[in-house]
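Bumping my old thread because nobody answered last time. Still need a sequence for this structure:
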């Protein structure tokens, strides 16, 4: 999406509100970010329900399947259909169904337990990190970046956040290649969903594993974002806000650099700090 393209009409709704300012109050219509459930199925089994911004549902599901360890690449899928047929036709716009290739091993019950634990912040930090590293080992990626590489990343992403500009209510994730070219930007009410949409796009483009690439996310860098970056094999995650303690701990053990508080060319470097030089 270029800066001049209109935002996806599925991504926002108009609602009534009252604006209050120094001149008084007045009713008006305002755009708000759309938030709706999406059920991700593997075969006929419901795997997860995520609250997302509609649009790019196939990318979201594909990225989710990879970052949560169900698949390692598109060759492990027979099909992935958005708007899958269901018993309730009204729900079809909110279902994506994946059919795995024969022989692809998976334990959906275990994954559902892990997803529940992640949503509840895990049993303890150590166990959570060990679980992530069991699924995706530490990176063996020689990528190094000059500090100046990061200064220009936020502005082109901000220019392509069309729905955020309309509503002020969405997170964004973006992917940059090793020379700093912006490849894709995706928006969503959930920062993890935005990242999954980016990874799903990269899977479709046959770019995964994403060695040498950089992810930029809006908001803070949470453990979940670092875990998903590790699954996609991304060596650097950058953000305009702060990292969490568990995100830093996982980054240190997995070989991922965290570039946080990226504003005005300044930033704080966490995790695998040797990835950024100069």
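Sorry it took so long. Here it is:
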């Amino acid at each position: 999406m270029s800066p001049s393209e209109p935002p996806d009409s599925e991504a926002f709704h108009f609602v009534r509100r009252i604006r209050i300012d120094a001149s008084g109050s007045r009713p008006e219509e305002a755009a708000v970010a759309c938030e709706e459930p999406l059920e991700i199925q593997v075969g006929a089994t419901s795997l997860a329900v995520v609250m997302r911004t509609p649009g790019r549902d196939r990318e979201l599901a594909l990225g989710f399947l990879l970052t949560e360890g169900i698949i390692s690449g598109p060759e492990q899928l027979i099909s992935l259909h958005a708007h899958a047929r269901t018993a309730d036709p009204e729900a079809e716009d909110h279902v994506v169904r994946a059919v795995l290739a024969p022989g692809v091993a998976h334990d959906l019950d275990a994954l559902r337990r892990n997803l529940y634990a992640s949503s509840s912040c895990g049993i303890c930090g150590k166990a959570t990190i060990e679980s992530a590293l069991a699924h995706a080992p530490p990176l063996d990626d020689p990528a190094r970046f000059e500090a100046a590489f990061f200064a220009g990343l936020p502005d082109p992403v901000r220019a392509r956040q069309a729905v955020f500009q309309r509503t002020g209510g969405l997170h964004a994730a973006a992917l940059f290649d090793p020379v700093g070219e912006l490849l894709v930007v995706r928006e969503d009410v959930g920062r993890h969903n935005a990242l999954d949409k980016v990874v799903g796009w990269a899977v479709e483009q046959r770019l995964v594993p994403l060695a040498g690439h950089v992810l930029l996310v809006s908001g803070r860098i949470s453990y979940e974002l670092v875990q998903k970056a590790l699954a996609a094999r991304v060596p650097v995650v950058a953000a305009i806000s702060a990292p969490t303690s568990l995100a830093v701990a996982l980054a240190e053990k997995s070989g991922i650099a965290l570039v946080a508080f990226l504003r005005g060319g300044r930033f704080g470097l966490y995790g695998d700090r040797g990835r950024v030089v100069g």
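The domain at 145-277 is CATH 3.40.140.10 (Cytidine Deaminase; domain 2). Let me know if any region looks off to you.
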